[in-house]
Amino acid sequence: MKLLSRHWYDIGGGLAGFTILYLFQANSLTTYDYVMWLSLTSLFLHQLEEYRIVGTFPGMVNRVMYNSNLPDRYPLNAKTSIYVNVLVGWLSYFFAALLGQHAVWLGIATILVSVGNTIAHTAIFNIKGKTFYNAGLATCWLLFAPCIYFFFLTIHNENLVTVKDYLIGIPLGIGLNVIGILKLIDWFADKDTDYIFPQRNLLPKDRKANNH
Question: How far apart are CA 175 and CA 65, in angstroms?
């Protein structure tokens, strides 16, 4: 589990590559299908930016959003990251893509998670941290935003959505944002956890402080 806690996002990066290869050779997918598989790919790459390419997302959340004195483990820790990103994120986005037009309500829910991420990274994190960029912001605008736009364009132009889809999808999307992310961080917060983020996942100032 500890090994997985340090490499799940690397696995996601590999899965993003396989998904892109699949889309290149697939010839029976609808426009909606393409959007949802690309949405899943965007999630993989977004997490890779947060935890590996830039990597400072955990430290930023703990230090900036929660004003934690233990930014390497509290309240967000490496095990909770698996629950939030893999169990909630990967599974919901994967089934939204796999089920396609048979579950537009699930597509709405996952797209609302992308919307929530984009708002958080663009406004909340930058305002709280007094920054212009934070780990995850680039993929929000380069990947999430186009998927959000083409999702709503597609379901509107192709008349794929019903009132029932909205009635299920919107509350579920809010639930995934609130319970599947924020509440899980609170519920699994543990100052004595062994699932500690490596130094590279902290903000530079905290890496220096912890090295002394």
Answer: 20
